[in-house]
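Question (not urgent): is this output format expected?
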Amino acid sequence: MTDQDIPESLLTPGLGEFWALVRRRLDRNGPRWRGTIALPELDRASDLSLGSLLGRKPPRRLDLAALETALARRNVGRDLSDAITRLGHPPSAAATERRAAQARAEVARCALAEAIESWEEPWASAWAADVQRSGIIGSLDGEAVTRLTADVRRLLDHLEEPANQSASRTQLAAALFGSAHALDRGRKLATATESALRHSIVGGTGLDGRELWEAAGILADRVSAPVLTWALPAAGSSPLDAQIRAATLGALPVHITLVALQQYPVDVSAGTPVLVVENPRLVEAAAERELQGSVVTTNGNPTTAVWTLLDQLQRSGARLLYHGDFDAAGLAICRRMQAGGCEPWMMRASDYEEAVELATQSGVRLERESRDCGPTPWDSELQEAFERNRLIVHEEFVLGRVLDRFGARTLAD
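Got this back:
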C-alpha cells in the first residue's frame, strides 16, 4: 500500500491529533515501546474510523500493540512507528539523533568491553567505566574505540620497562603514536591514559596533570618546569653551584632545571634550614629583602625538579621546613610534603587562628572553603580549627610574618 492508498478515514484532522500523540510517546520512549495510551476526545467521525480500524469500539486506554496489529493488518506500515510516519507524523529530528547517539554509545561500550577482556589489571573494568562516564568515546565508532584502548595498553606496557621511564611526554608520544602532541591535554588519548594512570599508581586518585604524569615516570621535559629558589648555600664547585652563588650575590632568585640538578646535584652544609613554600611570591619577596635564609617554592603541587632538589638537600643533611596555604588544596600539599620529608612549619592550629585573627583586626574578609581539608597529622587540632572556621588563609596574606620569623630563626641558628 502506498501513502496514496491509505484510507481517507485514517487521515482526518481529528485522528491526526491522535497520531501525533502516539508519535510523541514513541519519540520519548523509543520506537519499540508498546504501552497503553489514554484516548483523547475524538469527534464522532474519527471515533467511528478508529473503531472500524480496531474492529471494536475504541477503549478509553488503547493498547499500542493492538493498534500496531490493526494498522499492519490494513498494510498501513511494517510496524507502529512506520505506520505513524506514513500517516503523516515521522519521528522528530531530536528523537532520531538521540536514538542514533544511544546506538553509537552502545557500540562504543561493547567495543570497549571487548577490548579490555585480555587486560590482567583488576582495575580494568573500573577504568572502562570511567572512560564511558567521561564521554570521550561517545562520538567514536567501534573501530576507533578499539584503537584508542590499544593505544592506552601500548603506553602502559611501555612504562612497565624501567628503561622507558623518565622520558618526556612529547618524546614518548612521538615514539609510540607518531605525533609529539598525541598526549597533549584535552586529547582523547591523553584523557583515557590519565584515567588509567590514576588507577595504576598507588595513591594516584588525587593526582592530576603534570603531577600524575610525573608519578608514572613521564616528564613534560627536563627544562620547562624548573624549581625557583633563593639563596641556596651551594657548597660545591660545579657550574650550577657557581650560578646559584652568583645569583645570591646579585639579589636574584634563580630557576634550576631538572637537567641541571641531574647533572650537578646541589650540596649544602648539614643542618642548613631551608624554607619550602607553596607560592613563588614568597621567593620573590625573600630576594627583595635579601633574606638571610634559603627559600624554595613548590609552585603548587611539586614537580619532579622540586622533588629532586629537596631530595638532594635532605641527603646533604638540610632541615626542610614547609609552609603553604590554609585551604583544602594547600593542606593536601602539606600532607604530601610531610610524607616527602619536610617538617610543617607555622602550620599549626595556633598559626591558623592567629592569621584569622589578623584578618579580623585588619578588616579583611577571608574566603570560605567548601571542601573538607582532610587530616592534618602534624597537628590534629588544625583540622578541627579549620573545619570549624572554614576560612581560607593564603600564604601571601601572612608573607611578612613567615619570612620575618624564618629570617630570625636562621640568624639564631
